[in-house]
Hints:
Elements (H helix, E strand, L loop, with lengths): L1 H13 L16 E6 L14 E5 L6 H10 L2 H7 L3 E5 L11 H13 L5 E6 L1 H10 L6 E7 L15 E3 L4 H10 L3 E5 L3 E5 L7 E5 L6 H13 L2 E4 L19 E4 L8 E9 L10 E9 L10 E7 L8 H5 L2 H8 L2 E5 L15 H15 L3 E11 L1 H12 L6 E5 L13 H11 L7 E6 L17 H12 L20 E7 L5 E9 L2 E9 L9 H10 L2 E3 L6 E3 L2
Amino acid sequence: MKHTLIILLTLLVFGTLNAQSWRPPAKGDYVIYTYRDTVRTTTDRAQNGPQFVIYPDTPVREAEAKTLVEQLGLTSLADANSGSVEVLVPVNGKEYDKVKDLEAYEKFINDSRSVSNLKIIGLGRGATFVNSQIAPVANEVAAIFTYGGSLQGKPKQTVAVPAYVAQGNKSLANFYVQINEAKEVSRDSKHVVYENADEPLQRVVLALDKKTTAAEALAEAWETLLSKNYRYSNYRHTHYMGAKFGQYGPYELEPYTDLDAIGMKRIAHKEKLSGPDSPANKAAFWYEYMPEQCQSAKEHTVPLVVMLHGHQNDNRTQSETSGFVEVAAQEGIALVEIEWQGLGGENASDMGLGMGGIEQVIMNLLKRYPQIDPSRVYCQGLSAGAMHSAAIGIEKSYLFAAVAGHSGGIFDGPVYSFTPEGLFRNARQKRGKVEMPFFLTVGTDDDTIGFPNKEAGSNSPYYNALNLYACLNDMPEVTIDFPAEPVLGIRMENRETIVTNKHITLEKGELLKKDIPMIQFTAIMHYGHWNFRPMAERMWDFFRHFSRHVETGELEYHP
Length: 559
């Protein structure tokens, strides 16, 4: 119980914060101007707003820096995307010094604490400093825009970083092409585009117009490169806990979710679900995601995945950072992300919905969208949302064909609206009568809940969740055997080691019932407490094999 309380206090203090937990860096003499969008909610971005950092051609004063930011169009970009802008100048007030100004940049990164979408803009001599000093150590940088300037010397080390090179500077573009190990993929009268074959986000755009202004080039760079990705580090720690300069090596490159580009329609919906005489007659809020090809689909042909966000997250977080929106657009899946916590505000429910409220939202969707297949409804969540998905799969088993959790399990004490004792009693009562497939994934460096180890033995929220579903599915209790299975800690079948294109290793195992993989457990090696985007595709590959007969309630398996 003590363990549970410590974890809950951690969640309440830190939350499963998204990467927008940015805080302004401590102002040094080199940070001459800061602009920060103050809008808390945004139509376009759920999180990861861009952090623009400008190195101007010559030192500027605060008023001049403000004018520069406005002339470059960055004030409007920051407003539209919940971003920020900082203008940095040489620490000596005259010329960029490759040692002192790099030290100032390191301090800037350290003071920023949690960096996710840093866009470095270099102009003239500022571009020379960026190309020569920052680019080689751009572990935390999502992309670089360089206008004018050059590359001085040959860097001793390099880090792959997306880059937009203005004014047709081919020699400079070649430098970025080389460090990204990219090859030409397209060419027209305005641009040459290069991409890395294994990681297309390692992208370089060479703009051929030598007469374009900095503002024109930057607007074009936003459309072709700067708006396409963000970068964050969840390796060997949890990203929202912060990191120092270079502490964890190059951050992961991740794509922005562009709903229009993938043909996904997002609808914000707020509605009172209870009757007028109910004390719970308050509005619930959720986002609906309907792929283009599903909007006029035939009746009962579209699967639905219910998404439950983490503690205090914006309720687009799980849809738009898990990778599930892209999978849904490709596979023809409807999504709904429910603001289940009742935090209030513009993008929130007026009350905590609980599992009954979540059920009401699902029933509302089934009524309004006849194309949704009620036999193929699934649920998944992150952190606190994963706790809820594990619980609701037991409590509302008739609703779902399968459930999943990312970085969340069942604690050994009461949380939110359920208790482990109640869930296990429910599972025991249904044992032998109800079956529910369960998918669980977690990072081994999860420092919020903690990955199970031999010292903890069986006392793990993740093992609790696995045992809960083993009980419900009338399967043997999980066998803890760290000597035989030093990673997962339990004996599993169909063990597999997978290495992703991001060079992250997954350790996967399954628990079978009559040769059907009813439970899948995947450890993401050295990963922290957050979504791992490639897992969305693997999760759907697990879900799609199961449906639940609407009238009999029986689980059906489709090989």
